[in-house]
Amino acid sequence: MNRPIRAVLVAAIATLTVAAASAQDVRSSYEEFIRQRQQAYQEYIDSRNAEYIRYMRERWTAAEERPAVEAESQPAPPIPATPPDEEPPAPRAVPVAEVVEPVAPAPEPVVEPDIPAAVGPAAGEGNLIPDTDAALQGGSAPTIRPDVPADPAAGRGGAPQLRPDGGNILAGGESGQLPTLRPEGGNVGGDNLSSVLGSDAPAAPVKPAVPDAGPAAPVRPAAPVTAPSAPAQPALPSAPAVTPAAPAVPAADEVAADRGGAMRGGSKLKGPQQRFTFVGTEYAVLTVQGSKPRLRDVSEGSVATLWESFSAPAYRTVTEECLRLRDQLRLDDWGYLKMLEFLASAWYDGAANEAVLLQTFLMAQSGYKVRIARTGQRLVLLVPASGMLYGYRYLELGGEKFFVVGNLPASGGYYVFNRAFPGERLLALRPSVPALPERKVAPRHLVSKRYPELQADVVVDRSLIDYYNLFPCCDVAVYQIPSVGATVRQSLYSALQQALSGRSETEAADMLLNFVQTAFPYATDDEQFGYERPLFAEETLFYPACDCEDRAVLYSLLVRELLGLDVVLLEYPGHVAAAVCFKGEAPGDYVVVRGKRYTVCDPTYIGAGIGRTMPGMDNASVEVLMR
User: Fold this and answer.
1) What is the structure's pLDDT at 221?
2) Which single residue of 396, 568, 606, 618 has CA 20 to 30 Å from 171?
């Protein structure tokens, strides 16, 4: 070999060797840095837990229960006969009474910390990080949110103010977001590491992701009532071609065949395990060695002693496993609350008071705002939320509604431990599409009466139906937030897209409007369920019938995801419709929201096209429900 070339190769090999050694040093330094910060944070949390327990032993505050607010069960509006086939109506503005914003809690004020302390993922609101190695892939680095209290004995007013953003950061006083420790620094999100730690922090090494694997999900057939097929009618002539927008598949559908398999059956867990069933599937989390501590009674001292047992290092792993499972299944805040309820019930096997306290502890350690209360010989969990929970009794504490969840007593007075845990934040009513193992039901044939080419054999995921069945009755605006699961996308969206291809946006919206108007039988919630119950879009495709708000939610989702157009809900007195923001001109009634024109589209005014308001609603001032 030529001597100069040999010298170059030797120099290159030497450089690569030095670089590899340097990279290893950086990795070691980074891991040690994270370990030290996690240890510092845990020491702080231990001190805060000790203080929390001390206050728990003091006499709790008396409080009175308030009766549940029931959702209004409106009589069905008089649905008129199919309107006459006439010229499109002239544009006409409809007055807007109020614009209702999304039902997410307002963000807490951001206060920069002084010293980094912990690594943790953002909790709730659907912003869950699925990849346990995300911190080491060069994207979102771990958010380290440190602070050390100037005076640990200063009480809740003296707690450090830490950022309540994607790092699950501690915050003083009554609000914030609790950091959650993660072994190996996984499941993290938030700011770039260097911007948080400064130039002194070592760079994060790159670590490849490990894909999930596991057995296939079980299938449980269930056949909903099939809507009758309409006789074929000729399609309307097509307008200038517009290709429907391809819907963006949410992260919840981008999962491996075994979604949640890493925590199921215990195959990947080492050590004692607690198994529990949640939405038709068995899961497992690591448990503690030996017998599980019990309550002597429901007095302040007994409750504080059990909370102190839960604060031991052995239970720290339980919280971490629960949060990891939450992130892996992409549960929203309410779904996580319910998952912990099933876990705690299995953990204590029928001992309701211990199960409630364990659920409360795990919620508090996970960063959620909760309270524990005693009524008679029962312990109950109190949870505030970002919106009204209809049908739930509640206590007013400091002007805030705390809903009574689980282990419900008949009635009576309460004694409440009304003290904030560091870093707590409000439970957000932002339902997600969780990544649960699929359980497909039998297909349901749906067809538009006016446009018979718009039809599909829809297959629904029973796991999602069971999951949404756990969700409380909320304001209608909440139900338009989530999309549908992968099973519905595959069976419904592809068929509708094919039929809509080449249509103008107004014609495509009109076709979808008739599809929702005529493919589903109409029935009020009282007629179908015996009580008021708005449905998510996935549920509307499953249950035999639906009413006005269910149709409006489904129609708005189809227009948004198939046509790529913005949609809002319109709430009249006793009635709900939708309105679409077309890019071009559209006929008929409209509302103006923030300078944009949204044309009325009513999925319950059977046979009416876009721009037509149901008679009796014409002169009503409507509320606009934003997504």
Assistant:
1) 33
2) 396
